[in-house]
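Quick one, probably user error.
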């Protein structure tokens, strides 16, 4: 473990945005094992990579001997957090949220240790302490501690009120009270004294520390992590094909690995500090070595390996690397059926083939209709034997033989044809 204290390590990584009573929090963390929590609302059936920083923060705290609670918001997920959202969230039904809660439980469980003694992690669900709470009790015992003036003054709420349109509903306005109540309840039941979350949660977190002080008479702390931004101003965690999810069913390990490989040089060392457990010293050394290295920096490869292994395990990383190497070399002999399934899911452009319609279809037309190039570009590539179908180079004589090139018996796993045109263009054709 690093010789730095936990907060020193977090600061060195750029992972501290705000904290309450810094000197007192430092002393509190140094005084022994602290129970902390972070909340994850079920707004979909998977978390996305924006949730990785707080998930890994829980793991960082646990590695220093503290006890993490991962709160899955079965109750708050029914309401929707208004923090810095442009408009009201769509309300989901109980059954949908309940299904998502179970999936999120499984996901967060992969990042912390549930069997390490006194600081073993736990997953908690805020529906457990809100499901039977009647409205009068809530208003009298909890609501009375909140000043509407202060709530309206919170920046995340103020933006919604000042924006033209629907503003903010009473439903979403009460979210801060519900999240604060979570903290008070966890302080009472688990001795929880620290809440962490993204910097957009600062108002909700400080509301919780204050409610815990008022209702329980206990000191409570808050710490926020920075929201991840990219140096070019584009949104982190989004690609042209959409959101990068932690679930392999929504973003394949191969596509996940490729996302990190594409990290810009201006972001990669910062992301290594955010998303890996390499020491700050190791990352700084890698940056210095990359400055004098000829050719592409190595940092992107290190980042892709480390994060893919954290999220998808050794098997997921090996599959992602195997597919990457196969596409680079043009030799797909080592690809498994599940590797092809990953490519079909989101790894490559994929075109469906009807073998019954190939007899009179020239290969140049077939590939150009699949957007692999113009007819002339495909013909030029065939002239150079630069069209490879399942490892077999095709020449000009193949133009009139689409049915032979894509014969059913040549398909990998009775379904797949991997086509490479030139050095970089790949596409998957499926029967």
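Nope, works fine. Designed sequence:
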């Amino acid at each position: 473990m690093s010789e730095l204290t936990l907060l020193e390590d977090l600061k060195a990584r750029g992972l501290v945005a705000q904290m309450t009573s810094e000197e007192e929090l430092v002393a509190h963390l140094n005084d022994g094992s602290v129970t902390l929590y972070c909340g994850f609302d079920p707004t979909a059936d998977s978390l996305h990579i924006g949730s990785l920083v707080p998930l890994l923060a829980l793991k960082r705290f646990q590695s220093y001997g503290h006890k993490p609670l991962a709160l899955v918001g079965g109750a708050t997920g029914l309401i929707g957090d208004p923090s810095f959202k442009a408009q009201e969230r769509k309300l989901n039904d109980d059954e949908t949220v309940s299904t998502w809660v179970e999936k999120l439980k499984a996901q967060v469980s992969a990042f912390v240790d549930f069997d390490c003694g006194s600081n073993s992690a736990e997953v908690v669900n805020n529906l457990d302490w809100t499901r039977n709470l009647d409205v009068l009790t809530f208003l009298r015992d909890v609501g009375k501690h909140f000043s509407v003036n202060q709530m309206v003054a919170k920046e995340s709420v103020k933006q919604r009120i000042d924006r033209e349109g629907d503003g903010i509903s009473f439903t979403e306005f009460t979210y801060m009270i519900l999240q604060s109540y979570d903290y008070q309840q966890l302080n009472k039941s688990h001795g929880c004294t620290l809440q962490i979350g993204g910097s957009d949660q600062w108002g909700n977190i400080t509301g919780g520390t204050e409610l815990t002080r008022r209702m329980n008479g206990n000191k409570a702390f808050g710490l926020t992590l920075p929201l991840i931004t990219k140096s070019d101003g584009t949104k982190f965690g989004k690609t042209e094909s959409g959101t990068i999810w932690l679930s392999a069913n929504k973003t394949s390990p191969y596509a996940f690995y490729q996302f990190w490989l594409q990290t810009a040089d201006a972001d990669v060392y910062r992301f290594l500090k955010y998303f890996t457990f390499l020491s700050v010293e190791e990352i700084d050394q890698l940056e210095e070595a990359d400055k004098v290295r000829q050719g592409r920096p190595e940092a992107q490869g290190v980042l892709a390996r480390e994060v893919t292994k954290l999220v998808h395990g050794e098997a997921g990383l090996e599959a992602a690397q195997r597919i990457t190497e196969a596409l680079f070399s043009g030799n797909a002999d080592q690809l498994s059926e599940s590797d092809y399934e990953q490519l079909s899911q989101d790894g490559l452009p994929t075109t469906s083939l009807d073998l019954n319609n190939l007899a009179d279809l020239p290969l140049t037309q077939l590939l150009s209709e699949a957007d692999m190039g113009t007819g002339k570009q495909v013909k030029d590539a065939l002239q150079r034997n630069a069209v490879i179908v399942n490892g077999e180079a095709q020449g000009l004589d193949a133009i009139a033989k689409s049915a032979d090139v894509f014969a059913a018996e040549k398909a990998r796993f009775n379904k797949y044809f991997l086509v490479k045109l030139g050095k970089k263009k790949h596409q998957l054709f499926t029967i």
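The chain has a mean pLDDT of 91.
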